[in-house]
Amino acid sequence: MAKKIEEALSLEEALIKLEETVNKLQQEEVSLEESFQLYQQGMDYVKVCSQTIDQVEKKVLLLNQEGNLEEL
Fold it and tell me: Among 33, 38, 45, which residue's Cα sits nearest to residue 2?
């Protein structure tokens, strides 16, 4: 499921979906079974966010003392 989510969502969209999932989990009327499903869905969104952030971090360039750019 995470691969399908990853292909379809940007980081911002995944963060919004994660927040919505957390809000649903905090509702009292959520059944135990639904809570497990929401938790798994939330973890998929966390994974997408983490992978996206990792990819961005690898692309960040630093300017070293000699004025050259090098990857972080």
Answer: 45
CATH class (in words) of the domain with range 2-71: mainly alpha
The SS3 assignment for 27 reads: coil
pLDDT at residue 39 greater than cutoff 90: yes
Distance (Å, whole) CA 1 – CA 7: 10
Q: Are 11 and 52 in contact (CB under 8 A)?
A: yes
CB atoms closer than 10 angstroms to residue 41: 19
pTM of the shown model: 0.72
Instruction: Tokens 């992978």: give the residue.
Output: 51
